[in-house]
Design a protein that fits this description.
Elements: H1 18-40, H2 54-63, H3 78-85, E1 93-95, E2 112-116, E3 120-124, E4 130-137, E5 141-148, E6 158-159, H4 165-168, E7 182-184, E8 198-200, E9 214-215, H5 265-301, H6 311-328, H7 346-351, H8 384-387, H9 391-406, H10 417-430, H11 443-455
Length: about 450
């Protein structure tokens, strides 16, 4: 998650590439403008709809006196906010590139700490006047807030007025209000060299393109990432070996200012999956609502039956559902070739929160050897945002997912029979809202039962 300002004029650009950079900026602004327009009208009404995300709910509790945040001199409201929102301290990751609205406060000596749970992200910088927060509204996507780091009788989370959406509602977030994990080439002062290119970090990202401008604590063998490394004036490429397999970064800045001394590798891996997963859930939500709204308008205009659904409407919803499915089932995941481990204990605390099936299996179980998770289906299928997808999208996704799990779909051929069976069983035991047809056995199970009966 990064609250990025508009690009500042401190690029490192090859003159021969100037035209390309201008074209990319123009393309981004066109995409930004279209995305901004879409959320202002029916059926989305992003700004006119009262938010119902965890931070909005916390604000109501503060306002009615059932919760009171506590302020301390070392980190302001940070610890109290984390406790109230149930965000674990061991989720801490640290970004030292100046890719936040409070960029002047960020440097390799004062990195920005980000803490997160399944639907809340909290950013804190030593000495900064604001806490930066975002959380997931089940129907409206990402919501952005700030909290003044000044002790006051009344604590008020201020909803962002649109500045965050310059980056967080753009083609990089699939044109919906979403979360964004950026990897940049950073100077030793934390200044990103945008002209050298940036990367959006997701589960599909090559390991070598991840976490530029971030600290990373953990072990990853011969794999290399961009974290823990900076560029100097005389150096046009990062020396990735220098940032590899760092389990302690306390020599680089004063870690005693922070709640944790870690910037956990496993937490960063989870963050890359989770932020993009939230974006695809929001995309399926928005696309379905917009498609059905426009379909209803066309039915009236063309005097068609109210329940008529056009091919274009069907196609639009199905495409959004398929994109969500592909990410949810990790078909685009970059394979690991080395064992990963973190340093903060986040991996263990993350896994114990999983909903277990009758065999004790959970979608939050980690693999960290060949892939991120042991079972290839996102734990965010249990999230409020997923559960509150429009029924049209949710029903189509359930039908499609069930078909994939009981049959070897050629588009999901890399999911083994064992993995499909495990995911099917876990979901049957942990998702009470599944349609009745999910209880049916797969053809493979039916054939095995028939063979057993014949032998008897």
């Amino acid at each position: 998650m990064s609250h990025l300002p508009l690009p500042v004029p401190l690029f490192k650009i090859n003159p021969a590439h100037t035209g390309i950079v201008i074209w990319m900026l123009a393309f981004s602004l066109i995409g930004f403008s279209a995305a901004q327009d879409a959320i202002n009208f029916k059926p989305i009404l992003y700004w006119k709809t009262a938010p119902n995300d965890p931070i909005a709910k916390l604000q109501k509790k503060i306002s009615n006196g059932t919760v009171q945040l506590r302020f301390n001199g070392s980190n302001g409201y940070l610890e109290s906010v984390l406790k109230a929102l149930k965000v674990p301290i061991n989720s801490q990751v640290l970004v030292f590139s100046k890719t936040s609205s409070q960029l002047r406060m960020i440097s390799p000596q004062t990195p920005r700490a980000i803490y997160f749970n399944d639907d809340v992200y909290v950013g804190w910088i030593p000495g900064a006047e604001l806490l930066e927060l975002s959380s997931v509204d089940p129907k409206q996507g990402a919501m952005f807030y700030t909290l003044k780091q000044v002790q006051a009788e009344t604590t008020v989370f201020q909803r962002d007025n649109g500045n965050c959406l310059v980056c967080h509602n753009s083609p990089r977030t699939h044109g919906v209000p979403g979360h964004l994990l950026r990897s940049v080439y950073s100077s030793n002062h934390g200044q990103p060299y945008y002209g050298m290119g940036t990367f959006t970090t997701t589960q599909a990202s090559p390991f070598s393109e991840r976490w530029g401008g971030w600290y990373v604590t953990g072990s990853h063998g011969s794999l290399r990432h961009m974290g823990n490394s900076t560029l100097t004036k005389n150096n046009d490429e990062l020396v990735l070996d220098q940032g590899a397999n760092q389990v302690d970064v306390s020599s680089r800045f004063r870690v005693s200012q922070y709640l944790s001394k870690h910037s956990d590798l496993v937490a960063l891996m989870i963050l890359g999956h989770q932020t993009e997963m939230h974006n695809y859930i929001t995309l399926a939500n928005y696309q379905t609502r917009q498609a059905l709204h426009q379909n209803e308008f066309m039915n009236r205009a063309l005097e068609r039956a109210p329940d008529f659904v056009s091919e274009s409407t069907d196609r639009r919803i199905n495409q959004a559902v398929e994109k969500l499915l592909q990410h949810m089932l990790f078909v685009d995941e970059f394979p690991l070739t080395e064992k990963l481990s973190g340093t903060s204990g986040f991996a263990n605390s993350f896994q114990v929160k999983g909903r277990q099936d009758r065999l004790g299996r959970s979608l939050r179980e980690l693999d960290l050897k060949n892939r991120l998770f042991k079972y290839p289906c996102s734990y965010l299928i249990h999230s409020d945002a997923f559960s509150q997808l429009p029924s049209t999208a949710r029903n189509r996704l359930y039908r499609r997912l069930w078909t994939i799990l009981i049959n070897k779909d050629p588009h999901y051929a890399e999911i083994s029979r064992e993995d499909r069976k495990a995911v099917l069983d876990i979901l049957r035991d942990t998702k009470p809202d599944l349609p009745a047809y999910w209880k049916q056995d797969s053809p493979e199970s039916q054939n095995a039962r028939s063979r057993s009966l014949n032998r008897q």
